[in-house]
TrEMBL record:
Subcellular locations according to the entry: Cell membrane; Membrane
Residue stretches making up the NADH:quinone oxidoreductase/Mrp antiporter transmembrane domain: 186-395
Name assigned to this protein: NADH-Ubiquinone/plastoquinone (Complex I), various chains
GO molecular function: oxidoreductase activity
Species of provenance: Flexilinea flocculi
Stretches that traverse the bilayer: 6-22, 27-48, 81-99, 126-145, 157-175, 187-208, 220-243, 255-276, 309-333, 353-376, 388-411, 431-450
Membrane topology term: Multi-pass membrane protein
Database matches in Pfam families: Proton_antipo_M
Keyword Oxidoreductase: yes
Predominant localisation class: membrane
Keywords: Cell membrane, Membrane, Oxidoreductase, Transmembrane, Transmembrane helix, Ubiquinone
GO cellular component, one term: plasma membrane
Amino acid sequence: MSAPVLWFFLPFLFGSLSMLFSEKRKLITILAIILCLFLAFVALTIPINSMIVYGNNSLIFTSTKEILGRSLTLERSSQPILAFLYLFAAIWFFGALVVQVHRLFVPIAIMDIALIIGVISVKPFIYGAFFVEFVVLLTMPLFWVQRTKRGDGILRFLFFQTFGLAFIALGGWLSASVDINPSDEFLVTRAAVIFFLGFIFWLAIFPFHDWVAVLMDETCPYVSGFVMSLLQFSTLFILLNFLNTYAWMRSFTPIFSGLKIVGTIMLLLGSIWAFFQKSLQRLEAYSIVAENGFSLLLLGIKTENSIHLLLSFLIIRVIAAAAWSLAVKILSVDTNGNVTLQQIPGLFKRKPVVSIALLASFFSVAGLPLFAGFPLKIVMISLGFSQSALIGTVTAAGCWFIIITGFKITVLLLSLSENDVFSRETGGQTAILIVLILIMLSLTFFPLLFNQFIRNLQFQFPAFLVK
């Protein structure tokens, strides 16, 4: 038995077969939850590259599987993120039991999770970009059949993701040449520029940012929230892996200077755009743009502490996205599509738990005091000022714009307006949302456990650890 077979091939096969029986939604969803919980339990309890003894028999739990001339390798250091991803998937599938989603969502979602495991495990790691493209192609039919408008954002999504793949693949090929001749400055510059052009498309960096808002505005918020969370995670993981692998890239100063400049601009513009949005979906889209700016800034600072913060924010964003997407999906059922800010005044009285989930998820990422992101944002602003007064000031301004946007949502939710557009929450919806809220709060009240998890995750990038 090999780890890639268990965590990659098995769930992908389950997702493929479950598409044939997708009409039995509840049964498929329950089986998917059981499978994800089982895989998470194994990741937490059985070390990779160990011997499993049962009765008079034994089984070697190996780390590598060869396929098509490439290897899939999962080491013990990968087990915390394996457990997290499958627990994350189980939470989304629990949500699918209490809201109406497309019958293909669960089969495609579990295949997407398996493909993200492929991103983590494939060697050479540059082939992970092709797994990301498979996630995009798998999700396209789901987006298209659930679109609420013409589908311009869906087509832009496909175009930019595919265009990004082309540049990243070309950059990876040039990187192999740089390893042979690292003294060729022209080759180094060309490889770095082409590679990072791919991430400009993937991470929605200005001026290629509007596809995120258009996509999330015209698709199911639950599906788009799931897919965007996975794609942002895999994109930043590949970027970190690339920088961890190539020493010549880490010593190429213009890249990190550019990351700091671009990240600072994006976090400010994204937070300002989020403040002026009129719908919850578009507001979330520009929050993603702002948070990508934070990630690029932290990556540009290039210290052990900044990488720790980047990974911490990434995990918080993934958890918060589940609560936000479920809450918006619940609201969109009553509004037959897009949920605007004009529709939510007085919502707290009709749907109190949904309202709390919206605020808890938004403020966890924004960094309001008493939420998980607050100490991280404080440290991040300090890191910004350590680079320059301008970067520190813009970073602080971006944080304040996001928090002010959250206050604007709070005022609307708590207003005294009578709103009979929305129905009452169901018991199942309330239960799942409360669990998600408690998970987000636990990151605040048990910071040592959270920091230890991030530390274990950071071991996968030894180039960013202090020797």
